[in-house]
Design brief:
Rossmann fold, 2 domains, four-stranded parallel β-sheet, globular
Length: about 400
């Protein structure tokens, strides 16, 4: 039987994907991060400190909620929600940013730096920086700054410097490029707090490990609630951190069907979607080998999603591995389906989801209709929709 729940090999590869594809002079920088992480991950003092903040600061464990009204209206399988939207800062991102901040502090770094798309990672990293007493700088595409104005304000209130990225498509991919350049200018003092399971090794492993708590909690909670494991798991996939966080604890359970949901945007035409695993092919990007939406010359194609956190042309390398092994099914949800799910959950359950999470919910609603009432679907509700209200108000009324 194939082992799906794997760690990267010594060179940072999940199967054929991942690695540390960087200039030789940068290898010592990333190797230092790996050594420091491997030293602290099993250190009792670090574990106690991390668990303290997760419980008393973040508010973990996040609950699982049976969406009874939505399930009754949709019909078919019962839909449950893992409520990561109830975390402090409003999303799953805080799970790994506290870990990154504590690691940076122990390494003697002075500044946390990162990219952000929807702004949830930026808010979470700024929050963690304030908590541990580090400077913080967040790079964000100019388009996303306009779409996610509330989160930009939150970052600034928390003390972060927000850098507007005006190059390229002015969205997440360009924010990553800009943040990398800023990091490379002073790696001795800066810790790059990557916001998803992407980038050069060891980041896909580090972020996955910190997010794994989502799946570990869900596995225990769901069995307490129902007496068994869920039949189906569903999560949205951009870079892929919320999805891999939930999925990791279930990968060896062959009876659990797992679905990652990508944004099909406005249409399947070039530049109108960000469905990397559905339409991409392997190529290097941001220091890793992974699936990439690319042109004939191997350059990243322009991408789009109504959800700023999903408009990335690549994806985490472990997701690429899991696609090829067919352990996870990668599906699509469009802008219109996302908005319909956003509105439906808000009006049937009184829960306003992030647009990213609404992609997962949209697919779960379709899946439920095709399944019997005896089946269950667990959706990772990765974030709340406060950040999206101003943007969507003219789209759903």
């Amino acid at each position: 039987m194939r082992n799906y729940d794997i760690n990267p090999n010594s060179e940072g590869y999940f199967g054929s994907y991942g690695g540390q594809i960087i200039p030789p002079e940068l290898k010592p920088v990333f190797d230092e991060i790996e050594r420091a992480y491997l030293e602290i991950k099993n250190d009792p003092e670090f574990i106690r400190e991390m668990n303290y903040y997760l419980k008393h600061y973040v508010g973990r464990p996040s609950p699982i909620y049976f969406a009874k009204n939505l399930s009754a209206k949709i019909g078919g399988a019962r839909i449950y929600l893992k409520r990561e939207d109830l975390n402090h800062t409003g999303a799953h991102k805080i799970n790994h940013t506290i870990g990154e901040a504590l690691l940076a502090k122990k390494m003697g770094k002075k500044k946390l730096l990162a990219e952000t798309g929807a702004g949830q990672h930026g808010v979470a990293l700024a929050t963690a920086a304030a908590l541990v007493g580090l400077e913080c700088e967040i790079h964000m595409g100019a388009i996303d700054i306009k779409k996610q104005a509330p989160n930009v304000t939150r970052m600034k209130i928390l003390g972060a410097k927000v850098v507007s990225v005006e190059s390229g498509t002015k969205t997440l991919k360009d924010a990553v490029d800009s943040a990398f350049q800023a990091f490379l200018a002073d790696p001795e003092n800066i810790f790059f707090g990557i916001g998803s399971v992407v980038g050069p090794h060891p980041y896909p492993m580090i972020v996955r490990d910190f997010q794994r708590i989502v799946g570990e909690e869900a596995r225990e909670q769901f069995q307490e609630l129902t007496g068994t494991l869920p039949n189906n798991l569903v999560a949205c996939v951009g870079g892929g951190s919320n999805a891999i966080g939930l999925f990791s604890a279930f990968l060896e359970d062959q009876k659990v069907q797992i679905y990652g949901v990508e944004p099909s945007g406005k249409s399947l035409e070039l530049g109108q979607h960000a469905a990397t695993l559905t339409f991409g092919s392997p190529r290097k990007l941001h220091g890793m080998l992974t699936y990439l939406l690319q042109d004939a010359d191997g350059n990243p194609e322009p991408v789009y999603s109504i959800a700023s956190g999903l408009d990335y042309p690549g994806v985490g390398p472990q997701h690429s591995f899991l696609k090829d092994t067919r352990r996870i099914h990668y599906e699509l949800a469009s802008d219109s389906e996302c908005l319909a799910a956003f509105r439906e959950l808000s009006r049937t359950e009184g829960i306003i989801p992030a647009l990213e999470s609404a992609h997962a919910l949209a697919f779960a609603m379709k899946l439920a209709q095709d399944r019997s009432p005896q089946e269950t679907i667990l959706v990772n509700l990765s974030g709340r929709g406060d950040k999206d209200i101003e943007y969507v108000k003219n789209l759903i009324f």
